[in-house]
Amino acid sequence: MAGSTYGKILTMTTWGESHGAGVGVVVDGCPAGLALCEEDVQRYLDRRKPGQSRFTTKRSESDTVEILSGVFEGRTTGTPISMLVWNQDQHSKDYSEIASYYRPGHADYTFDEKYGFRDYRGGGRSSGRETIGRVAAGAIAAKLLESLNIQVKAYTKAIGPVEVAQERFELAECEKNKLYMPDAVAAAEAEQYLERKMAEKDSAGGIVECVIAGLPAGLGEPVFDKFNANLAKAICSIGAVKGFEIGEGFHAAQMAGSENNDAFVMEPDGSVGKATNHAGGILGGMTDGSEVVFRAAFKPTPSIAAEQRTVNKSGEEIGISIKGRHDPIIVPRAVVVVETMAAFAAADMLLGGMTARLDRIQEFYRK
Amino acid sequence: MAGSTYGKILTMTTWGESHGAGVGVVVDGCPAGLALCEEDVQRYLDRRKPGQSRFTTKRSESDTVEILSGVFEGRTTGTPISMLVWNQDQHSKDYSEIASYYRPGHADYTFDEKYGFRDYRGGGRSSGRETIGRVAAGAIAAKLLESLNIQVKAYTKAIGPVEVAQERFELAECEKNKLYMPDAVAAAEAEQYLERKMAEKDSAGGIVECVIAGLPAGLGEPVFDKFNANLAKAICSIGAVKGFEIGEGFHAAQMAGSENNDAFVMEPDGSVGKATNHAGGILGGMTDGSEVVFRAAFKPTPSIAAEQRTVNKSGEEIGISIKGRHDPIIVPRAVVVVETMAAFAAADMLLGGMTARLDRIQEFYRK
Amino acid sequence: MAGSTYGKILTMTTWGESHGAGVGVVVDGCPAGLALCEEDVQRYLDRRKPGQSRFTTKRSESDTVEILSGVFEGRTTGTPISMLVWNQDQHSKDYSEIASYYRPGHADYTFDEKYGFRDYRGGGRSSGRETIGRVAAGAIAAKLLESLNIQVKAYTKAIGPVEVAQERFELAECEKNKLYMPDAVAAAEAEQYLERKMAEKDSAGGIVECVIAGLPAGLGEPVFDKFNANLAKAICSIGAVKGFEIGEGFHAAQMAGSENNDAFVMEPDGSVGKATNHAGGILGGMTDGSEVVFRAAFKPTPSIAAEQRTVNKSGEEIGISIKGRHDPIIVPRAVVVVETMAAFAAADMLLGGMTARLDRIQEFYRK
Amino acid sequence: MAGSTYGKILTMTTWGESHGAGVGVVVDGCPAGLALCEEDVQRYLDRRKPGQSRFTTKRSESDTVEILSGVFEGRTTGTPISMLVWNQDQHSKDYSEIASYYRPGHADYTFDEKYGFRDYRGGGRSSGRETIGRVAAGAIAAKLLESLNIQVKAYTKAIGPVEVAQERFELAECEKNKLYMPDAVAAAEAEQYLERKMAEKDSAGGIVECVIAGLPAGLGEPVFDKFNANLAKAICSIGAVKGFEIGEGFHAAQMAGSENNDAFVMEPDGSVGKATNHAGGILGGMTDGSEVVFRAAFKPTPSIAAEQRTVNKSGEEIGISIKGRHDPIIVPRAVVVVETMAAFAAADMLLGGMTARLDRIQEFYRK
């Protein structure tokens, strides 16, 4: 059972290990005629690149993408787009000792159980570098959505216990702090919190929020392929995500129906709108024309310098302290991963939404 | 784009509307040789049947399942298992007026936007009756898992603001109260809360928790088909689910790495275990041999008798008050839906897990 | 691994055994708004119904289809269409002795090897009755294609050594003879051939040809999902089909490039056409706007009354003579199966063809 | 709709154009623990490499494969295997004039119709170089099968009208002539035939036959995913294939049931065998333990130097004569493509065959 391909109409197949030759992705099903160059992809990759602040790993990678196929004279051809990033700064020796024991919170043990052995260098396939392929693929999806006036935007909602305050929310602020938080005060507090965790040789988690604006109503399928269900899979497939919620999410469980229901209203332009958006843009698994709003919970980075208890492959209980270059928090770098995975899932469902009505199909083929 | 099929190796395809002839499911990929009769499925369907308490719809349906194929002399044959439940107590007239307006919190508007029109009788395909096919299919998956000593168990974790207290948790208590809560005190409180909501012509939401015990380590795939990602999709595809979390879930976002990491330990029998289970049984997207523990948040029932604002198809803003027979809370009936969907997703990944290692494949085919 | 679902955008999932309660199919992904009633499906099923001539099994089945979901007020709703045909005239006792041995040319042995045992009544899942679900699903696809001015038509090309002569080809003749041959002379000859085979307690095979007219150019994908590759799978998945060819097919292997290439020409209406159609309407795996023409080879019915050698489950070599009601030739009844499977495959690729170009997607969503 | 991925459990996703940076493939779902190095793949690629005889294109490519992921310390890890071959000898200028007209027998026109424009250099995605990814992926599948004692072997059965004679068939002869024919006499005749076609500035087609030996009985699924149906799709997805047949194939249509049925017999070792193999190793869509034997018909190379009629993009009818370096026959180079695609399809179904029986699943997970 494969599992390295995501999507139904628009698909991505990622490959590559942390300390192999490189990492990459093949995007298939991208419509022909989209203007695309490496710079379109690179600016997304740059947002997840390591080494951007003292809160991220010091591994130094330029992460320069090469597009190897599927683009001709500046436009996509409709055939698969293969993209590749070579690995550069691999300190494999840092990892040699990992081969003999199981790091808590990591996939070392489960890889061994599943496959009988593992590429132990830097997490292998479970490394954060696996997300490079996702981000590159999602960058194309984001460009496709933009050509249809659909925008996807993610940001840090919380770092540990420090949350963005709704009354101070300012989206542009994201770009001004290293934590990608749309609230300068919260960002400052969160930085202090992180400093403390780093001093304690510990790590932190957080929450990413994402908004998709401009989607037409009626995307997603009513039963298993609900828009939110496919989004949940896409987002929960990102390493370290432990929770997903849409609209009011877990809070909805405590609300009364009269509070949670969104009244329909007539918009000035004669279209149907909603007075509120507790639903997060989804009714019955299909987009309702409002913004889709969802959140993902990230666990704290499992690699910590503080001593931990574990076992080695000889069956002995031992104490370890993890070396190597690790992010004390992955949330700021994960923002772009959430954003691009959401873009990819949305683009896939947008393409899938074209076959729902016979009258529109007849019109399409009459051309 | 279809969307009525779930699963990769073990699949279910559901069909049927609330007020059509009936509802059903085709299960494909079930291994040959599983003892199966209608009673095995019926006992799960009985748990979701309406009319079991004053908190559920008064629609009266016996929901008797018929197995039409795939079973011969009491055992599954490996070919598709078709199951059918006829609809009986359809008060379609209750719904005739719904055709003209959009109920808040329902899929009326999104169905119209997607398909151009809709079967307006009782929610059509978005009715709770759609889950009958899921439960019937999941019952087979549960039986398959039991034959491998794997148990799936779901219960009500919270009703509105009333939560099960960990110190009073007693699983057997579930069967003793109508809300399926493993805590008698919380159940009593929750009943009072629901009475209040009903008196207010309002409704409530809640949280379902589910535990899968006995899974081998190594199930799920490291990238997109993570065990938790597939589970998230399965659970978020259930109508009214607005959130999904595994292990510590959203709480993990506030924890330090040193708190959230689970130390590996040696078990008395020489196997590797974990001192805690903050991870909810998943590391790197693969099962780690601990219990898989997850939660789903359900929004309050959108159908409420209290007046609400909405619009009709002529573009007028109107006030409505929903008639018909509706559950003030769907959580107690949704417990078995979560349990069976989880069973189905787990069984699918268990079957998918057989091809990971060459040595085991060689052994398999050497027989 | 399932295997009872065909299609990607438009899917069918069939179920049912020869001697179980019934057979059926769930069609998912059918666009909303297609006028559909049971009669639309029934007229296709009537063409494959047994008992229509002395060359078909005497099993008497009315094969009356019921549509259980997915249609509301005479039009498809976009949700799954479940269709069911009850089994009636089951002479299971005819088959009791089959349980103990393996019929040559049948799937008895392979079922036992795969699943460990089998439903031995009348071929179980490998019975010709399995095609009822295909035909019912394909009838819907054919109606969908008709609404886009696309016609699919199959007929008998050869019975045993007797072939339709190109110079006598007259399509309307099909309906006038029991063998569904578009050539009265060949049909008469073929009837004599079949009488001879029946007198010899033997059986015959044949070839079905099918033409799809009116398809737009550009359907099918350039690599694995070529139009002809998907068609090949659809057609070769019909029981008893041993060969598939498109356009000149096997004959093309003997032609020179200069003979086989079709010159492009300008049509009077200014469109691009082809002077000949050796390609059978496919270039590079995509439709070229010409008629798609393909053929399927059917083996002779394996059930024959003449004595044959085989083995029983005790490992003894024995002589058997097959009883029961069997068609000496299945080709005339298979014509509608080929036609509807082709319609289904074509409709699936037609829907899949809507996402190839960004400009057309932009136009679609701008509406 | 994507279409660049083949397989269900074991998948390959190919990418790359004739005159882009390179071509490649990602193989996902390969079990962990298979010994694999680049040489294992290279020896298959060398068999399809251009420039090996006067009957193949003079384009000079070393076609050296690089494995970029999924292998660690000489063994597959269970994660995706990315392989890449850089393009080298690209004479793009040879193709500049192709941009303005449609070559007969090529995909120029259909690409333009589907995507609105095309990468016109050397056939782009429809070039024979697309098969490099297939061969590389299939080489891994072949190695996997070998580790289970399953052998796949293809050879040239016919070149134009010249067929291998059954009485002179000698498999080892394949390696001794440039046409890969297991019959020295036929090979010599075929060479003369090809010389004549080349002198006439024309081209030839042919037939490839393939045998899979050692497959266990019971592979393939009884309905849509029949072993032969999946094989048909895999083989018909190879460019230039116009026909597929298994066992007696089209000849079966002319046989009587008594001739075509294979009697079951007891083998000396107590297993069940067949006296003949007209079925080509498949009964009811499942392998029966005999050799699987199938054939593929290849059309003559459409690129010929002789003048042909066609149209250009301005709608004018013109005469053209194709330049560039083209094979007068592709069959000898296609042999390895058929062999590796068959290996891949077989390996996929072999892995898929592990979940058919509960008793074997229980045994598997009891370990």
UniProtKB/TrEMBL annotation, chains A, B, C, D:
Similarity comment text for this entry: Belongs to the chorismate synthase family.
Metabolic or biological pathway: Metabolic intermediate biosynthesis; chorismate biosynthesis; chorismate from D-erythrose 4-phosphate and phosphoenolpyruvate: step 7/7
Subunit structure: Homotetramer.
Catalytic activity: 5-O-(1-carboxyvinyl)-3-phosphoshikimate = chorismate + phosphate
EC numbers, comma separated: 4.2.3.5
NCBIfam families on file: aroC, PRK05382.1
Cellular component terms per the entry's GO annotation: cytosol
CDD domains from the UniProt entry: Chorismate_synthase
Superkingdom, taxonomy of origin: Bacteria
Function: This reaction introduces a second double bond into the aromatic ring system.
Matching Pfam families: Chorismate_synt
The protein's name in its UniProt record: Chorismate synthase
Binding site for NADP(+): 48, 54
Cofactor stoichiometry and binding remark: Reduced FMN (FMNH(2)).
Annotated organism of origin: Clostridium segne
Binding positions (FMN): 125-127, 284, 299-303, 325
GO process annotations (BP): amino acid biosynthetic process; aromatic amino acid family biosynthetic process; chorismate biosynthetic process
Needed cofactors: FMNH2
SUPFAM superfamilies: Chorismate synthase, AroC
PANTHER family: CHORISMATE SYNTHASE
GO molecular function: chorismate synthase activity; FMN binding
Alphabetically ordered keywords of this record: Amino-acid biosynthesis, Aromatic amino acid biosynthesis, FAD, Flavoprotein, FMN, Lyase, NADP
